[in-house]
């Protein structure tokens, strides 16, 4: 029983980080109806920002979120303004962002080499005891930050004028335009917010994982699984889908095989496509 609870809690903690990655992807899809294939590279950039903030200026990786998020937001806005906005349709956007992914990954490769880099924070190996259950302190902090950011996003989307404009643009862009909302500007801001969320997840993962230029590809796949699981464009679905994926991977690695950890997410992805293509919280469209 203790092993099951240990695996369950570890999966929930990991799933929270997956949810943050997917939140940015699902926001971008909800407003622009495009899948940002470069989303994982923004996560990679966030990891490197946290790494260099710690090694050069001794800024804790969790605190470095206040640096990585604004920088990647601005980068996302610039990329959307001068690159993504020039695409003519969804198919072109998919190819464009896939090319952008290669450019960002190879730029990182030139700047920082393919070497694996790891943050050795003092509390990196510390655990918190919850009865007989041990929880990694960095993952616990990451999960708490995830909850706080998710609540902040919920408040932002439901209580601010900009958040309501984003929701209106996602629900019906033509009607939003008639009501005086600058949909193109909203799309640009949303793309920046999505990039910032990916970067935040990179900062949260920095104390636990090695940073390298192509790490974004792995987490793009996980984010895509979470978005499809929860329902394309559903913020609530991204949060719950992330936790489901984390728990599935954790329990599967303990009770079946650790070597198949990443495969469990893909199996879950295929099952969702077969039996509920719209996701848990998505709506079927024709």
Question: How does this model look, in words?
Answer:
This protein has 286 residues and is mainly alpha-helical. The protein has a single domain, classed as ABC transporter involved in vitamin B12 uptake, BtuC. Helices cover 72% and strands 3% of the residues. It has eleven helices and two strands. A two-stranded antiparallel ribbon has the order 1-2. Helix 2 packs parallel to helix 4, helix 2 crosses helix 8 and helix 3 runs antiparallel to helix 8. The longest helix has 31 residues. The radius of gyration is 19 Å and the shape is globular. The model has no long low-confidence stretch (mean pLDDT 88).
Question: What's a concise summary of this model?
Answer:
72% of the residues lie in helices and 3% in strands.
Class in CATH? Answer: Mainly Alpha
List the strand order in the largest sheet. Answer: 1-2
Mean of pLDDT: 88
Distinct helical segment count: 11
């Amino acid at each position: 029983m203790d092993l099951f609870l240990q695996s369950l809690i570890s999966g929930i903690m990991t799933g929270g980080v997956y949810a943050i990655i997917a939140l940015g992807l699902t926001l971008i899809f909800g407003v622009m109806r495009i899948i940002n294939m470069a989303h994982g590279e923004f996560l990679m950039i966030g990891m490197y920002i946290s790494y260099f903030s710690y090694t050069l200026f001794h800024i804790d990786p969790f605190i470095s979120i206040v640096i990585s998020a604004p920088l990647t937001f601005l980068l996302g806005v610039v990329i959307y303004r001068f690159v993504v906005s020039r695409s003519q349709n969804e198919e072109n956007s998919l190819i464009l962002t896939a090319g952008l992914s290669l450019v960002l990954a190879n730029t990182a490769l030139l700047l920082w080499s393919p070497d694996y880099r790891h943050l050795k924070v003092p509390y990196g190996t510390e655990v918190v005891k919850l009865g007989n259950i041990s929880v990694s302190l960095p993952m616990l902090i990451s999960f708490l930050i995830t909850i706080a950011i998710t609540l902040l996003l919920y408040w932002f989307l439901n209580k601010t004028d900009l958040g309501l404009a984003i929701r209106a643009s996602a629900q019906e862009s033509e009607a939003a335009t008639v009501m005086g909302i600058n949909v193109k500007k909203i799309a640009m801001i949303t793309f920046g917010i999505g990039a910032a969320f990916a970067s935040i997840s990179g900062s949260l993962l920095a104390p636990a994982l090695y940073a390298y230029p192509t790490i974004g590809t792995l987490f793009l796949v996980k984010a895509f699984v979470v978005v499809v699981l929860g329902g394309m464009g559903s913020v609530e679905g991204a949060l719950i889908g992330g936790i489901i994926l984390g728990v599935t991977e954790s329990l599967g690695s303990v009770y079946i095989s650790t070597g198949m950890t990443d495969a469990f997410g893909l199996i879950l992805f295929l099952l969702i496509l077969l039996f509920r293509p719209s996701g848990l919280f998505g709506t079927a469209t024709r």
